[in-house]
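Morning. Coffee machine broken again, so started the prediction first thing and wrote up yesterday's gels while waiting. Chain of 560 residues, entered below exactly as on the submission form.
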Amino acid sequence: MPAHPSVSQTRFWLSLSLTFAALFGILGLQKAFANFYIVQDDARQHIFWMQRFLDPQLFPDDWIADYFQSVAPWGYSGFYRVFAAIGIDPLLLSKLLPPLLGLIATYYGFRLALQLLPVPLTGFLACLLLNYLFWSQDDLASATPRAFMLPIFLAFLHFLLKRSLLACLILIALEGLFYPQFVFVFAGLLLWLPLRWQSGRLRLSENRWDYWFCGAGLLVAFLVLLPYALVTTQFDPVVSVAEAKQLPDFYVGGRNPFFYPDPLYFWLVSFRGGLFPTFKPFLLAIGFLLPLLYLKPLRNRLPLLRQTKPLMLLQITIVALGLFMMAHLLLFRLHLPSRYSAYTLRIVLVYAAAIVLTVAFDGLLHGLQRSRQIGIKAIAWALIGVTTVTLLLYPSYAYPFMKVNYKTGPNPQLYQFFAQQPKDTIIASLVQDIDFVPTFAKRPILVGREYAIPYHDGYITPFRQRANDLIRAQYSLDRAALTDVIRTYGIDFWVVSRDSFRPEFLKNTWIRQYPEAIEQAVANLQQGTPALARQRQRCTVQRDGNLIVLDATCLLRDSR
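Came back before lunch.
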């Protein structure tokens, strides 16, 4: 394989890489538009409030909408606002963006690969693995801030290796606007610029440009992060470790489990605190072989290995591990530790695997040219063939391959009914399906599992109070308790399911993370029929599937 490929070869492999990215994007679009009432899981949090861009009167004084708007990075919300200004619905845009972001990430992923090993096949293999990585997780499909991180990060790595200062400064600023916490990764990589590994020792660079480059990048990183550090909201402060350990939300069975009894699971594979939350695609494991190729027995037999420049992969790994540990030490102040290790380490393995495969293919082809033994040639061709088939057919045997995590709203009549109500209508429910209402009916709900995010004291404390009040009221035998909650929160409709007043509902749904209220609710069910259940027949105004909508005005009237 030539170390200096022709332009036509590079274009061919780049085109093939973009073709695969486009195909995966089309598959993603098919899932995104499979139903009118369909939305990506995380988009329910990050997108619903953006309907305010189209109609500022939506979600008036809505605590949940205000919170998610306050934590949205400025560039991210501004991006959707610009498109909303020309009439493009944020939900529609969130479905169209992932394929485009995937193509951009693929392009820069290919360019980055050529700088690590200047062989177009390496670029194609890296892009193939990158797209397997993108679409086997739900981050790209979510069109949330994490989706924008992927192309920006790969572009930054590309321009950092090229030492393109202006491009790097722009990308640092963009990352700060779209996914600010990842700017720490960028800053960590910049710190490597003044360092050189020479004669087995780490030394300072003699090139002044390295210091200017590093300083300028760190300055932009500081400036773009400064507003986030200075601006406070009504939802601050960030929850402390001591507080988190007291909340059921952070344990198994809670909305955001973080603490686990098994230390190995916690540190290595837990979703929020683990070093490697997921290991998909499993083909990434090939990347672990890269250090072995540099051992003497193999190094001399693999001529292409001399063309590789894998130092950046080591630098990314060290930065990721450092930030992972720092995030644990400053738990929740830098958000979640896995945010710094999950994608960085998997991207390192993507490129390590691409280099291993390219070098191995090249070594086998050289062996075929030198060998005259038919048996050895057959084995070499078999290895090449099996590896190629395994790579290209991964989506067909890695079921389920595409983890886009789109959710279909199961109650369309319910959304249509609520959409016809006044915009300040408040809906109370403990049923998990109510999470779709803000997205599809554009009406506020009092609480919902999808929105029970416990990272800010000023948000989760009132949220837990609301949830506890709602549980106590729904299962109270006393009508006065139900009336008080309806009046306190200005509830207009109360949604229950046919199973809401069975003990199993309390034990098996998201509200089990409110144990004190649940304990009283179970006791009430054992003693008699809750007041709300007694009025269910008279106050029903809408049914859809398993859900029943009760008119709060009727509940107040009947409770007198």
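Residues 497 and 546 are 5 Å apart (CA to CA). Going to sketch it on the whiteboard this afternoon.
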